[in-house]
Design brief:
heterodimer, A: mainly alpha, 2 helices, 37% helix, B: mainly beta, 16-stranded antiparallel beta barrel, globular
Chain lengths: 68, 379
């Protein structure tokens, strides 16, 4: 966890004065979500996991499949 | 999974009163709900998506998959949300794997169905979110049961969110034409993540996931495919979102580094732009590059170099690069109803591997998929 905090700190250095609540209107837009279309993201993860050796990073598994 | 949902609480602005409300909301009400803190959805959403996937080797159609999915998300109380989905994949075509396994019994068709369902219950309290879920996936030769739990905490300023997650998957494996093959596979996964608001226009998330699989990891349809009995994977995904004010667009940049104890290393870079066009239209071009090194026991020679040793001819464990070009368009049809369409083309080539050639004799592989979706929010 300390490792992750350090990563956040590193990307933040020099860039951020703390962002105030009233400055977050644009960050709240649906298109700024990490996965604006959850089903689409899941479908792609499923396709890539069945064709490539690498997977993961976007969450913990919803279960295995005979495709990989 | 449900860890990082940012929701827009926009208001209709078709009357002066509504406009004033919107302004007030912009100044006051929106602020606490955004950032990164998660907010329980206040309305149910139903989404239907239909996927059509086709791949081929050397211009020969190989596998065709159609896949309708229904997703429902509904608040059950102010702080509890239930979400679930159901999918049926129907696969047909001549499987190269099966042809290999059956020693060139050409023309044998493959027809298989996969049914998958999952359910997640999410509880929101203050700046903390806890979710528990389960999922199952069933094919005639593969059955999987999975459980997961996730939690996240946001700081007072709601500029930083920490996430943890864990899952367990128990799989049973058999194979058509091999009545004595009954195997199991167990997988534990863990997630650690941090999300940080950087500026009023940018936000970043970095997740580490660890996966630990034990049991039967070979492919029963590949002759002499013999893989290790365990696999330890690490994936480090960093996702960056930047709001391009002059275009009202959102730039998405994702990078993932992956490695495992099969000595596979992979890099993935995914860039997309969410560009509203007005009149309810939106377009999303996407470009993805992927590169992987080979597993140490991969070999595309047959028979295996050393008989009885670890060996896999599975091209997915070879060294190659891949490029995806995608485009998605969506249109708001009526209030709270959106139609979307996407088209994607994917190609793998040994020579596209990052910094060098890939595995010799891997044939180029091409896939394309289309999807059409309809989303309605009951508001």
């Amino acid at each position: 966890m300390r490792y992750l905090s350090l990563i956040a700190l590193a990307v933040c250095l020099g860039a951020c004065a703390p962002v105030q609540p009233w400055q977050k209107g644009n960050l709240a837009k649906a298109n700024m979500a990490f996965d604006p279309d959850k089903l689409d993201a899941r479908t792609k993860a499923h396709i890539y996991a069945s064709k490539e050796a690498a997977s993961g990073g976007d969450g913990v598994s919803a279960g295995g499949c005979g495709c990989n | 999974m449900q860890l990082t949902v940012i929701r827009e609480r926009s208001r209709e602005t078709n009357s002066p009163g509504a406009a004033l409300l919107a302004l007030t909301a912009a100044a006051m009400a929106i602020a606490p709900t955004v950032a990164h803190a998660e907010v329980a959805p206040d309305a149910a959403t139903v989404e239907f998506k239909y996927l059509d996937y086709l791949d081929n080797n050397h211009d020969r159609p190989r596998m065709h998959v159609t896949s309708p999915t229904l997703y429902v998300e509904a608040p059950v109380t102010a702080n509890n949300v239930i979400a679930g989905s159901a999918t049926i994949d129907t696969m047909s075509g001549a499987s190269a794997e099966l042809l290999n396994a059956l020693s060139g019994a050409s023309g044998i068709g493959v027809h298989d169905k996969r049914r998958a369902e999952d359910l997640t219950l999410t509880h929101y309290f203050g700046r903390e979110v806890v979710a528990v879920g389960g999922g199952m996936s069933d094919e005639n030769d593969y059955h999987s049961r999975a459980f997961n739990a996730n939690a996240s905490w946001s700081t007072d300023s709601q500029n930083t969110t920490l996430s943890i997650g864990a899952s367990r998957s128990n799989d049973r494996i058999s194979a058509d034409g091999q009545p004595f093959l009954h195997q199991t596979r167990h997988t534990n996964e863990f997630l650690l993540g941090v999300t940080q608001v950087l500026t009023p226009q940018s936000i970043v998330q970095s997740n580490l996931t660890f996966s630990d699989a034990h049991g039967y990891l070979s492919d029963p349809y590949k002759i002499l495919d013999t893989r290790p009995g365990s696999r330890h994977e690490m994936a480090w995904l960093t996702r960056y979102r930047y709001y391009v004010a002059s275009w009202d667009a959102a730039l998405h940049v994702d990078y993932r580094y992956f490695r495992d104890n099969w000595k596979v290393q992979a890099h993935t870079l995914d860039v997309s732009l969410y560009q509203p066009l007005g009149h309810g239209w939106q377009i999303v071009p996407e470009l993805r590059y992927y590169s992987q090194g080979a597993a140490y026991f991969f070999s595309n020679t047959f028979p295996p170099p050393v008989f009885g040793a670890l060996y896999s001819p599975d091209e997915r464990l070879g060294a190659f690069g891949a490029i995806t070009e995608g485009i998605k368009a969506s249109k708001v049809l009526a209030k709270n109803t959106t139609l979307d369409f996407s088209a994607n083309r994917y190609e793998q080539r040994a020579s596209w591997r990052l910094g060098g050639h890939g595995s010799y004799s891997l044939e180029p592989f091409i896939a394309r998929w289309f999807s059409i979706g309809l989303t309605h929010t009951f508001r």
